Every structure is written in C-alpha cells, then in structure tokens.
C-alpha cells in the first residue's frame, strides 16, 4: 500500500460485547461516570463530557468481546477515498461507505467498516451528530473522552504493520517487544498492542481532564466499594497516570490523565525496558498482580462471531 487509506483524526469510540449489557451500562453510568445518550433493547451508547456523541457502545452477546473500534476522519469524501484505497489493497469492506444509522448506529454519521488481520471490526466515520460538551473541569470526576484501547494480539509485528501501513498510525514507543504504542494525533497513543497468547481486548482507558479528577474518580469508586486492580501509578511510556478496575463483566477499564503530547516532527520512538521503575514511575503501584493480568488476558475473541 503506497498511501494509508485515511488520515485518522482521533479514536472516537469503542464497542464492547458482554453477556449482561444492561448491568454493564448501569456500571458505566452510575459508577464510572459516563452518561447514557441512547439505549435500545440490549444496546446502550454512553458519552463522556467531551464532544463525541458517544465513546462507549455496549451490546449483549454470549461472552465478552470487542464489538468494534471507531476512528474519526475529516469528511465523507475521505471515507469514500478510504473505501477505494482499502479495496485496492485487497482489504474487503464489511460495510460500504454510507449513513451509519442504517447499521443501527446511534449518532449516525457517514462511515465504512472493515476487519483487521485478527478480525477486529474497525469503523471510519465523519459527520457524526454533535453534542453539547459537558463541564469537563467541574467538580464531578467524569471521563472526558476515550484515551486508548489496548488490544491483545497473537502477532504484534503484523498488527503494527497493518495499523501503520493501512491506517497511517505511528509507533510512539515500544515496551521491549511486548507492547507497541500507536498514535494518530498528538496523544502519545490511542491504540496499543500487547503480544499475547490469543486475540482479545486487554483494557479500555478513559481520560480524566486533570490528575485531580483522576484521583477523585478513584475516590468515588472506592466509596462505592470498587477498588483498583492495579494503581494508582504513572506509566513510563506515555507518561500517563493509571488506575485499572474490572467492570461487572470482568473487562478491564482504566482511568488515566496527563497523557504525553507528541510533537510529530520532533518525536523519537523509544524502546522501554520492562522494569518496575519504568512501568511504575511513582513506585506506588508495584508490579501487576496475577489477578489483573488474567483480567487483561480475557478470553479468546475470534471477532465478529455474533454476526454469523
Ligand atoms: Fe492503559
């Protein structure tokens, strides 16, 4: 592929499949701090305080899985151009360019869908419905936007090759040959791949507007009996704060803040050693426990199996 299919502007949203989507929606609204924008039978769309119509979509399925990852592009024209380039590169479209409401997508917009090499569904969209931003810096400790999604992969090099070549993402840093952090804008990473035994979602991170909101969010969860699986702490790669929790389905969600901002032309990709002083800069979190590792490994996800 000579040119990437599109210029990604941001990570818009993630869709998760869980056996009890209603219970998950309750958690993300009443405990985690998101707001439900729309719900329809087994599906729910939740927003943060930022400008995205929704950042999380929840749908019912027999077992936990990644439903899709959605990126924004600038215009419907860019969606059409992406369709041409993907097709020319031999990547089959799962949904041709068109209005997304025909695919029961709340917030609508114009987009397309295709599958990555591990059968994860990827959506590119433009002209999604606008919403009035919430008060991000108010007293309420609510996530502003999606920060990143970490994906377990069986082939980290193939995954990086696809997302850099086809989607034009850049590798910001490596954590040895175990994790790769990819960006599509000034945020240090919006996607990270983790070399693993099987394909699955490792965790989804939500950005708090400040470190104070981050800590207050942890405090609110603590008062509701939800304690971190790992954290709080600050990671080396990305220099972001972290605190990991398990949602009612056992999927890992993270509060983060202060993600490093990349100056495109000045950034040099590094390889970080996996030592405690680099993965836990403050020395507050200690190494990840067996329990958090097993939640992050999740269960094998063949991708799009619910469509059959
Ligand atoms: Fe993370």
UniProtKB/TrEMBL annotation:
Domain VOC: 10-127, 145-258
Family annotation (InterPro entries): Fosfomycin_Res_Enzymes, Glyas_Bleomycin-R_OHBP_Dase, Glyas_Fos-R_dOase_dom, VOC_core
PANTHER family tied to this protein: GLYOXALASE_BLEOMYCIN RESISTANCE PROTEIN_DIOXYGENASE (PTHR36113:SF1), LYASE, PUTATIVE-RELATED-RELATED (PTHR36113)
Protein name (database record): VOC family protein
The organism's taxonomic lineage, starting at the top: Bacteria, Bacillati, Actinomycetota, Actinomycetes, Streptosporangiales
